[in-house]
Structures are given as C-alpha cells and as structure tokens.
Write a structure and sequence with these properties.
651 residues; 6-stranded mixed beta sheet; 30 strands; 17 helices; alpha/beta; binds zinc ion
Length: 651
C-alpha cells in the first residue's frame, strides 16, 4: 500500500512511502529520509506532483503514539496556508525537535494527578452570570469574551467552567502571554484544583516536555497552562480553550515562524468544534470589533475585589514646572509620594526603559554610541557598567577613541529605570527601593524579591512594563508615570491601541485591596485629552473612536495586512532587489502593495531591511495569491524574505 507521509521539514507536501501494515490518517511512523530516519505522520492527501522518478521507499515502523486527530490535521493544513509557511513546518511545531514521543505507562503521569479538590468557592452574582453564559453553549464552537477590570475575579470563573469538563475526562488548555513569571498563577491553580498543572513553555526541560507531550497525546494529562507553542500540542480530547489576557501582544510570535497565537487558538477551537473563552480587562481592537458585530458573546465583571474602584488620575504638565538639572521628578510629585508613603502605601515609578540611559554621547565630538550591527543607540546599563544593544545583545565598554583627540568623554542623555531609581534614592532617603525590569527580575532570587514587594517590605518600585503583567501587589496604591509620551510612534499604526493597553494594565496594578489609589501622569504633552481618554474607566469610548479611525483609513481589523521584509548585508544590492521584487509581484497579488520603504529599524543584526506592506480584503485569497507568486520568484543570494501576516510590530 502507498501512503502520503508529511515530514517535519521545509516541504509543503507529503512524500509517498510504501508499507504492508495497515495505516490510518494521523498515524505516526518512522521513515527513511536521505540517510537518516525521521518521524512523519500519515497525511490526508498525496503529493500533487506525480511525475517524480524517485524510488518509493518503505516505512520502517508505526510508532506507538495515539494518532493525530483529523481535526488537528485540518487545523495544521489551514495554519500553513494562512501564515504562508510550508505544511511540514506546521507539523514540526506540533512535535518535539521533530520527533513524536511514544506512549508511556500510566504511572509516569501520576505527578499530574487529576483529582480535583472539592472546594467551596462562592462566586459573586456577576461571576455566576458569566459562568452560566460560558456553560450554556459549551458543546460546540463559539467565542465568548469575559471582560472584567483587573482584580474582578475572572480566573475563578474560568476555573469553574473547566472543572466539570476535567472531571468528565476531557482536556483543557489555558494560554497565557508571559509564562516566565507565572508562579503566582500556578499557586492559584494548585489551590483551586489541588494538583500541579502541566506547564508548557520554551524554558522547560526537554525531558519534561516529552512527558507532557505524550501525556497530552494519550489523554492522561488533562490541563495545560502554556505559552504560544502549547497551541500545537496533540490533544486527544480537547474540550475548551482559554486565552487569558487575550489583548496581550506577546501572543504574537515575531521571529522565525510568525503567527498570532490568540487568533490561531480561535481557529483551532473552530476546527475542533469546541468553545473558546477570551479573557481580558480591555479587549484588543480585533476582539472589540467582533463583539460589536455580535460575532462573539460577551459577559462583563464590573465589581472589583472588595469594591475597589479603579485608581483616579492626575496629570502633571511638565511644561509648567521647572525640573532641577538631571532630575525627572517634579517637586509636586515628591510631596504627593511622601503623603502616600506616610500612609504605608507602596509607590511605583513607571518608565518603560531598561538600563540607566538610552543615549550615551561624547562631550567633545558629540557622536553617540550606537550599535555596530543595528541602526540604534546603545543603552547604558550602569549596574553592569556596559553599553548594551537591546535588539542584538551587542555589548561594549565606554572606552572609545575620539575623533578630536584622546578618548571620548561620555555623557548620558535621558533616563532609564536605573537612573530614576538613583534619583528616587536621593529624594526618598531611607526607603527600600527595588528596580522591576527584565534585567532584575529574570534571576533566581526574583521570587524572593516579589515576596518582599507583596509584604510591603519594599516601599518604592521603579519598573518597566514588565510590572503591568498580572502581578498582584496588595499595598501598591500610587503610580507615577515618569513621562507619558504618546507622540513617538508615528510609524506604528497600532501605537494608540498599545498605549491604551499598557496604561490600562498599569493602572490595574494599583488599588487592588480597596484602598483609594491614584496614578500621576507626568508629561510634556499639551494634549491632556488623550491621556484622560486612556485613563478613563470606560475603555470602550477609546476603542470606539479608534475603530472609526481604522475604518476610515482602511486599516485592520477592516482590512488585512501582510508585511514583507527583505533583508541583506549589501545595501545597494538590497535596494535593487526590492525594486525588482516589487515589479514582479505588482498586479499579481490580491491586494495593494505599499513600499518599498526602509524599515524604521533600517539595520538589524548586521542586515539592512526594506519593508513592503500588502493591504487587501480579509480573505484567504490574499495568502493564496501571494504564496503562488513567491514560489515563482528567485531571490538573489544573500537576500532573505520574512513574511508576517497580521503584523503587530512595524519596526
Ligand atoms: Zn544591535
Ligand atoms: Zn568623542
């Protein structure tokens, strides 16, 4: 018998193999490929090109793995077409380093014991209403959005929705955006369910991954808490997907194979015909539009824990205040912060910039220190005494020969969190201060630091956006946004939306236990209307207006964008190629081609970058036409193309 076998590699079609054993679609097999043996899956369709004169080889053996479901195969096929990647690469995403793991004995999965504790959780009236809505139609595909301010108890509602499904032996998937710092979430899970969740992200060991993969495939593991990649696990009987913080843009995979895990989760739910719940405080613009159209159901939780109101806000216009030299905190703020500290409130100074200073330059020649690999300034990290590129990781010290004479004399312009923390130390002597950024919080002692923050032993935090990601700090009642700048993202059509999400999430960190809380926005911006709209308790007003702008300008979610980036080390060659490429695809692709233009980040990791944006209607025709054209175009050597469907970043 002949079988079509899809292999986890760059080919978009299955290969034909032969075998005496009886195989079904979805069976995992071991086959020879070139000189090696690799894992493949019996696919649902043979390769279309029948003229190949290869000798058909034999399947080595069938693997002892639960077959991949037809629904999952359909999903992977669709995923490949939608994101313009080869089918083989889609399959690869669902395997572990290209391999499948054979079923193990039951006892191996006992650490993920699925005995649910009988706990007596009492839901509030609005929590119950949401739960009812979730349960009402949970047997087939539908999208339900659970919207609630931070601290309103959304997690408990979906735990309650998952529980009966798990008890019946079904499986559930909880997707989270940033899984590196989920210890607070894990604890919540264990307290509720009484067992360890299987956690899935890039940081866990290969051995653990293999165990979880096979446990999911044979149905012994019931719940996964996972990052983006958990979406491709071979679930045996998945019955519900939860996407928590659905608005979070880190669901977008930007490097390598690009895809949006939230959108792909919705598609997977649709192929598997199961319900999916999107959880958020402020929905993404796409989700908001689907709610308005009535495509998604919605329920809202409006009460916060202990009836805590969202914090008030106040705008401090820096144009009317004179700051001292090398200072970024207004005197008015110092008074207010002292008032909060006396009340034993924790205070956060927020600045979304890691390190000490974003610009280092020489006092004599005025040349800045920039990255030799990227068209970007190096950031000075004082704690490590190095200049660092935040894009490629390039490091250097401060010593440089000056074009004038001798060595460059380094001065710093503008603050990062380290610099603000120095100022805070001076202005609030004797207080315990902690920097909260990926430089300080991705280490082994970060749990210890978080504990101290929770217990209010740390009185002042200086943090980047990392702090906006779901942390619960009970004493945090005062936030100072050091400089809210809404003007700088001209090239980013999602800039406004990103700001709304960031500052809304940030505000949600304060006042979580019912005490009055406040956010102070320091700004040089004279347009305070935009800030008040962002800080407003009702984000729908902002989203409504943003949708109007998007509609008028033919932007997503009304149209589809596909971004194409050509990159290469030779600038002239790249420019020429970009024009040739444009001529080739023009009038052939279902959409309007914008570009070529130099990417805002023109040089990255030693490669120059030129962008195109294709805009068209939201139909798979756009992808189909593009993939056909691309298959016919031969790029010159050294030129690379990256395709990004529904881009989030416009760098
Ligand atoms: Zn760099
Ligand atoms: Zn110099």
């Amino acid at each position: 018998m002949k079988y079509p076998i899809l292999l986890p590699n760059i080919f978009n079609h299955p290969f034909t193999y032969e075998s005496d054993i009886n195989l079904k679609v979805g069976d995992y097999v071991l086959v020879p490929f070139g000189k090696s043996k690799i894992t493949g899956v019996v696919w649902d369709e043979f390769e279309k090109n029948k003229d190949k004169k290869f000798k058909i080889r034999n399947i080595i053996r069938k693997l002892n793995v639960t077959p991949l479901k037809k629904d999952t195969i359909n999903f992977l096929n669709w995923f490949a077409v939608y994101n313009l990647i080869p089918k083989g690469m889609a399959l690869k995403l669902s395997l572990i380093s290209g391999a499948a793991i054979e079923n193990k004995e039951k006892k191996f999965y006992e650490i993920f014991d699925n005995k649910i504790i009988k706990n007596s959780i009492k839901l509030s009236t609005s929590q119950n209403k949401s739960l009812e809505k979730m349960n009402r139609s949970n047997k087939k595909f539908r999208v339900h959005v659970l919207q609630g301010t931070t601290g309103s108890g959304k997690t408990l509602v979906y735990f309650e929705a998952l529980k009966p499904l798990i008890e019946k032996g079904f499986q559930g998937l909880i997707l989270l955006p940033e899984i590196g710092l989920t210890s607070q979430f894990e604890q919540k899970f264990e307290e509720y369910f009484g067992f360890n969740p299987a956690i899935w992200h890039s940081g866990i060991s290969k051995k653990k991954k293999e165990l979880i993969w096979s446990g999911i495939s044979c149905g012994e593991i019931k719940i996964i808490i996972g990052a983006r990649s958990s979406l491709f696990l071979p679930f045996k009987n998945l019955r519900m997907i939860i996407v928590d913080e659905e608005h979070d843009q880190s669901f977008k995979q930007d490097e390598g194979i690009t895809y949006n895990a939230r959108d792909m989760a919705i598609s997977r739910a649709s192929f598997e015909n199961i319900p999916i719940n999107l959880i958020t405080a402020v929905p993404s613009i796409e989700t908001f539009e689907n709610i308005k159209k009535g495509k998604y159901e919605i329920s809202r939780l409006t009460e916060r824990y202990k009836n805590a109101a969202l914090p008030n806000y106040e705008i401090i216009n820096l144009n009317h205040t004179k700051l001292e030299k090398q200072s970024w905190i207004a005197n008015k703020i110092i008074e207010k912060v002292n008032f909060h500290l006396e009340k034993k409130d924790q205070v956060l100074f927020f600045l979304n910039r890691r390190g000490f200073s974003p610009i280092a330059l020489c006092n004599k020649c005025f040349l800045s220190f920039s990255c030799p690999n990227c068209a970007i300034n190096l950031v000075y990290h004082k704690n490590r005494n190095i200049l660092l590129c935040h894009y490629c990781g390039f490091k250097s010290n401060l010593k440089r020969n000056c074009v004038k004479e001798g060595d460059c004399e380094c001065v710093f312009s503008g603050p990062g969190v380290e610099r603000i923390s120095e100022e805070v130390k001076k202005k609030f002597p004797g207080k315990k201060i902690e920097i909260f950024s990926s430089d300080t919080m991705n280490k082994k002692d970060s749990n210890e630091k978080i504990k101290k923050i929770i217990n209010n032993e740390t009185q002042i935090l200086v943090g980047t956006q990392l702090i906006s990601k779901g942390f619960h700090f009970p004493s945090l009642n005062c936030i100072v946004v050091v400089d809210i700048d809404l003007s700088s993202q001209g090239h980013d059509l999602r800039g406004a939306e990103k700001n709304l999400q960031l500052y809304h999430q940030l505000s949600g960190r304060a006042g979580r236990t019912g005490k009055p809380a406040i956010v102070y926005f320091q700004t040089y911006e004279n347009n305070s209307k935009m800030i008040s709209e962002i800080a407003n308790e009702n984000p729908d007003i902002f989203l409504d207006r943003e949708l109007e702008i998007r509609k008028k300008n033919k932007l997503p979610p009304y149209q589809r964008f596909i971004s194409l980036i050509l990159s290469g080390e030779n600038e002239n060659k790249l420019e020429k190629e970009a024009l040739d490429f444009k001529n080739f695809i023009e009038n052939k692709v279902e959409g309007k081609i914008l570009g070529p233009v130099n990417a805002p980040l023109f040089k990255l990791k030693k490669k120059f970058r030129i962008r195109f944006l294709i805009r068209g209607s939201k139909s798979i025709k756009m992808q189909n036409s593009l993939s056909q054209i691309l298959s016919k175009y031969k790029f010159s050597s050294g030129i690379k193309l990256s395709v990004d469907v529904d881009p989030i970043n416009f760098n």
